[in-house]
Amino acid sequence: MNDRKTKFTFDEAVDVWLRYWNGEDRMGIAIDYRINSGRVSEVLNEQKHLGSKQAALAKKTA
Predict the structure, then answer these.
(1) Whole-angstrom Cα distance, residue 61 to residue 17?
(2) pLDDT > 70: what percent of the chain?
(3) Which end of the chain is flanked by fewer CB atoms within 10 Å, N or C?
(4) Whole-number Å distance between alpha carbons of 50 and 4
């Protein structure tokens, strides 16, 4: 059975930002989510889930 993810939800993208800011590397985040590391890069390069960075920042400072 292939249970690898192919894309993030918006909430997961917010979590990606928070984890990245806490010092986790892209590959580690990808492994935990069972997703290609390129999808993590898409979030962190703001190519996907626009607004997730701002949502993560608001969550972090709340």
Answers:
(1) 13
(2) 97
(3) N
(4) 23
The number of CA neighbours under 13 Å toward the Cβ of 2 is 4
Q: Residue 3: which residues within 8 A CB-CB, separation 6 or more? A: 34
Longest dimension (CA), the chain: 40
Residues 6+ apart with CB under 8 A from 30: 36, 37, 39, 40
Sign of CA dihedral 16, 19, 20, 24: negative
Model confidence, pTM: 0.91
